[in-house]
Amino acid sequence: MNPSYIQLLLELLPQIALVVTAFALLAVDFALLRQRDPTPRFRTLGRITVFGLAVAGAMLFFQLGQVQAGGAFVGPLRTVVLDPLTVFFQIVIVVVTIITVFISMAYPFTTHVSEYYAVLIFGALGMNFLIASEELIAIFVSLELLSVCLYILTAFHKGMLRSAEGGLKYFVFGALSSAFMLFGLAWTYGLTGDTTLAGIGQAATELAKHGLHGNGAMLGVALLFTLVGFGFKIAAAPFHQWAPDAYEGSPTPATAFIATGSKIASFFILVKVLFIGFAGAHGSAAWGGFNSGWIAVAATLAAITLVVGNTAAIVQRNVKRLLAYSAIAHAGYILTGLVAANALGAASVFFYIIVYAFTNLGAFGVVAAISARVGGDDFKDFTGIYKRAPGLTFLMLLFILSLAGVPPLGGFFGKFYLFTAALSADPHNLGLFWLVALGIAMSAVSLYYYLVLLKTMYVSDPVAETSAATDRIAAPPFLNFALLFSLAVVLWTGIAPQQLLGWIERFL
Amino acid sequence: MNPATHIPWIASYLWLIPLLPFAAAGVSALLPQRCRKTSAGLAIGVIVVSTLLSFCALAESILHGLEPHAGRTWSAMQTHEVWHSLIEFTWFNYGTTSLKLGFVLDPLTAAMATMVSLVSALIFIYSLGYMSRDKNFTRFFTFLSLFAGAMLGLVVTNNLLLFFICWELVGLASYLLIGFWYHRPSAAAAAKKAFIVTKIGDTGFFAGLLWLYHATGTLQFYTPDHTGALEQVTALAGLPGIMGLSLAGTIALLIFCGAVGKSGQWPLHVWLPDAMEGPTPVSALIHAATMVAAGVFLVARTYPLFQASPQVLTLVAWIGAFTAIMAATIAVAQNDIKRILAYSTVSQLGYMVMGLGVGGMAAAMFHLLMHGFFKALLFLGAGSVIHGCHNEQDIFKMGGVKKHMPITFWTYFVGTLALAGIFPLAGFWSKDEVLTAAFRWGGGLHKGPFVLGCLGVFLTAFYMWRQVCLVFLGEYRGGKARAGHKHVGQEEAETHHETAPGVPHESPAVMTVPLIILAVFSAFMGFSGLPEHANFIHHFLNPEHAPHVVNWFVIGTASALAFAGLGAGHLLYGVKPLAPDEPDPLKAKLGKLRDFLRDKWYCDELYEATVVRFVRIAAVVVDLGDRLLDGVTVGLGLLARGVSFFNFKFDEQAINCGFDGGCGSVRVIGRCFAALQDGRVQSYLRLVAVTAAILAFWFFLK
């Protein structure tokens, strides 16, 4: 055996720990717990899952120290590249997964408990590999591993029609997007003769030297198809139609996982592909100076996404659907930072996806805790819920305000950095000012629907039919811990944003 | 000894001093109303800790000052011989721009923090007794903590922006506290007035802040590498500003606007007497330790800017002198015990501002510190009297209280003599410092502030002795009038013990002990500022200005005038005690002039007729414009809703409806596959393909 493969295995110990945890879960569940009630099984197996994830997290933490001291580890063909940034984001993924597990433990919805946790872990595994890879085939395979797990999670609520519908829709769209992406990646390989991002970057720069015409135009098509494929993954309009159904239909913990972990991983790899692979074919999106390239496409998608996501959210009357459209809108903000196409842009995107992930985890955690008790997640189920769940509602208030970008919460600095990055790309002409102005205008619109949700929860009187129950709703302790942890991240990034941004900038 | 390398431990923990009260405010804001003891205990506990920390800071800076400094000369002042221990941290930065905040430990901070936290602590304890019956007790302590935290925050900060934030928080807390009994219309109006009037000054302050940032690129007062905003004054003094002033002078003028608002200087003094509508401990806090001191402290903190511009200093001196004399004359003709003290505060603030203007920064700060002690004492004493006289505030309905409230009387007596500037109490030393500085300032017309100041000394002694005679001496005049007496404040009544009507009674120990402590400070703290070589506080606050010699002329004049004032007061009010319904003897002596003084020089009326009327007219005009704009906004809103409705319909019906309908009609999951095959996926595909084609055409193939 090639010694470098032994080293590879050693470097991948955290991921191996994840796989072992998944199989251990299945074994324990089938051997010992099959006959028990779902609720205790959810808790027992959840604890095992958290333990496994924590072990993997500890290993990653150790690894972070190693790669910071000893330089990045580069696997064969650059399929696995472990530098401080990727390891840091792997840790974030593991933490997000742990919080998802905590939310799941409060929301026992199925009898296939170990399968559920195992699929969750495999999803996290896919994200781990996706973040670490810098090679087209590895990227595609990791993305598929991740996506298939998410389809299953979406449809996991087997008794519910909406869950099946959402899962199916997600799957159809996902398959389509994979086809697009594969087409784009294949063409990219054909044009550049390389599958590593760095190699592609060199060849693409050569091809795009005289603009994207002639041979360059073919590169443009490859780029476009790849971007369309990613557009599905990040739910950018007009490739977003799967998101509202999938978010609404999924069991709430799975929604949280889709909305956060998958977003982190997808945006991370999108930044890598665009910044490294298509570095030469950037074009421009300056007002009056549109020039073919990925910036132009991304800026267009960003503008459409901002408008569609924010306006469609206004009329939603289901909390999870509302958060889905809000997620679409946030993809628009993140794309705005992405088109800055410089180090600040990358740092601001990375900062934002972390803040956004923890804010959404908190919001979905509250939704899970409440809807598990009131039996639904429409606005009418949440009307006047303040009286029954004051603590949870207050947490929701903070998370929603962070999503809306109200200082001093993390969401404010996230948006601030994204917009500043977009403006800093061209500080003299402010070419991207139109996009930033649109983003700011749309975040004003977003305040409306966020406040409608808060008003429903705080001010409105409960609807007659649901007001019968008046008992207090309180989250179990582990969920409380998860929510408070998310809140801590949101507050920390809001009060001392410099710290997280400083880490990211140092790792870049 | 290099201050940059040696950071005393207390400097690293300076941030705790304001943060603790803030944290207490935050915690007790979340407590239910019934947790009265927890809230009060928390507030008092943390303010005591803050006080102890402040004392540590004071001790550290005194020890630091004792170490030998070599080569203390005039030229050394430019490279700040006054030492500063700095703690800096970056709040956030982006690219090359960064926002740094920080804290500074220097003698000014240490002395001010000690006074503020000590006086606040005593007032907090006093409030325990004074507010014991109020049903919003918890909220009261929340606001008090916020007030103290904000004030201590602006004392320790090393950054003008953080200073401004705390400054505004002080304004907010004062608004909340002045309007604490918000069901009383006059309290609500006074709170609004305080907020709005000080805000006028703040506008100037904010403009100055922005200009300073623009000119120097930093808002740190001092930085370790000597590039702070106050360390670039030499450069600023060379640049042109507006109205023939240098840039330093312009910024100083704008910053002074903020101080005028907060410290109640003419022409923005009108809010301060109205602020008496708040509970008495709040008045004490505002007048002694927190709010009004903030303005003077601001000028002291940014003093290098002022020093660079003699014209602005002249203006400052005259405004201070004018305020001092004007407020003193108004105080002479007031009947409300708290209002007299309020105008007295305005007058004393005038002295401090005058002191700043004539170049005596240390003298002004000395007076500020001493005034903090005796004014807190007087206010708390007045509160005790009001408490004891069943919420009566009119001094003509009091009298003879000395018999019933001996502790209150003797402490009040000490405070009165201190304020009047009688040897050897605190006010004597500090006022002497200010007047000496004014005397040495210049000749000719520039002796004006000194003359006005001396007149003020006479008036101060007069109105204070008038008050003491009417309140404490003679016979009690309130008992018989009680039938027709209406309760001014229902709430205030609820807060108090109802005892037998008609007889004043001494307050409980929780209120009198702070009085005694403050009286001790008022009596003896002045010795920290003995003139001649032992002038410790002068050395401490401003080491460059070498100690000056004793000016016996100033001391003699001021003391003579003070005794004359006391004597005049005694002749008029003390020799023959007033009968219950006898009018003020001053009326006969002064005639129309007294009405003019009683009505506060008609300042409020003047503002009502000019500024307020103008604003009303402007408001009507703007309102019309707003209505127009409103139409546009509503139209835009409708448009946005229309777009979103269309979008929704498109998403839900054009795209989802068929799918949902298909799914809804079947109950078995497998049947969804059938639904998928009825052609809907093609429509998704079509949309995606069309989008991709359009994008490709648009960007790459055109």
List the total number of helices of chain B.
30
Which band does the percent of strand residues of chain B land in?
Answer: under 5%
**Cα shape of chain B:** globular
Spatial separation of the terminal alpha carbons of chain A:
34 Å
Q: Summarize the main sheet of chain A.
A: 2 strands, antiparallel
Interface with most residues: A-B, 43 and 37 residues
Low-confidence stretches of chain A: none
Shape of chain A: globular
Largest sheet of chain B: 2 strands, antiparallel
Count of individual helical segments of chain A: 20
Give the total of beta strands of chain B: 2
Radius of gyration of chain A: 22 Å
Provide structural commentary.
The complex is a heterodimer of chains A (508) and B (702). With 508 residues, chain A is mainly α. Chain A is 75% helix and 2% strand. Chain A has 20 helices and 4 strands. In chain A, the strands form 2 sheets. Chain A has a two-stranded antiparallel sheet with strand order 1-2. The longest helix of chain A is centred in the N-terminal third of the chain and has 33 residues. The model of chain A has no long low-confidence stretch (mean pLDDT 88). Chain B is mostly helical and 702 residues long. Chain B contains 30 helices and 2 strands. Chain B has a two-stranded antiparallel sheet with strand order 1-2. The N and C termini of chain B lie far apart (73 Å). At the A-B interface, helix 7, helix 9, helix 12, helix 17 and helix 20 of A face strand 1, helix 29 and helix 30 of B.
